[in-house]
Amino acid sequence: MAEIRSDGSSLTFTKFFVSGHSPDLVDGATAPAVSLDPGNLGIYGIEQIPGRPANFEFRVTQAG
Fold first, then answer.
1. 35 has which bridge partners?
2. What does residue 43 show for φ and ψ, rounded to 5 degrees?
3. Are 15 and 32 in contact (CB under 8 A)?
4. Taking a C-beta distance cutoff of 8 angstroms, is the pair 16, 26 a contact?
5. How big is the chain by its Cα radius of gyration, in Å?
6. What is the pTM of this model?
7. Are 36 and 57 a contacting pair, CB within 8 Å?
8. Per-residue pLDDT, 40
9. What does the pLDDT average to over 8-19?
10. Residue range 22-44: mean pLDDT, rounded
11. pLDDT of residue 58
12. Residue 58: which of 48, 45, 49 has the closest Cα?
């Protein structure tokens, strides 16, 4: 698992979901660490509204 931080403190709405990770909102205002699996299946999306397509996607590599 890789510890990934996302600083959303400058966003108007700081809370988001990490698709495929957790059903709970993450509050990006505090730049929390989220443990995510790397590798080929390590593609995640950031969603601000559950059930809508991700606003963007990112991959977690073996290097984190």
1. 3
2. -105, 125
3. no
4. yes
5. 11
6. 0.68
7. no
8. 65
9. 85
10. 81
11. 86
12. 45
The encoded tokens of residue 13 equal 């709405």
Cβ of 11: how many Cβ atoms within 10 Å? 13
Is the pLDDT assigned to residue 23 strictly greater than 80? no
**How many CB atoms within 10 Å of residue 64?**
10
DSSP letter assigned to residue 49: S
Q: What are phi and psi of 28, to 5 degrees?
A: -70, -5
Give which of 50, 52, 61, 56 is closest to 4, Cα–Cα. Answer: 61
- The strand ranges marked E within 1-64 are 2-5, 15-18, 26-27, 33-36, 43-47, 56-59
CA 17 to each of CA 13, 40, 63: distance values in angstroms, whole numbers, following the listed order:
12, 20, 23
Tokens 């989220």 found at: 34
Closest Cα partner for 4 from 47, 40, 33? 33
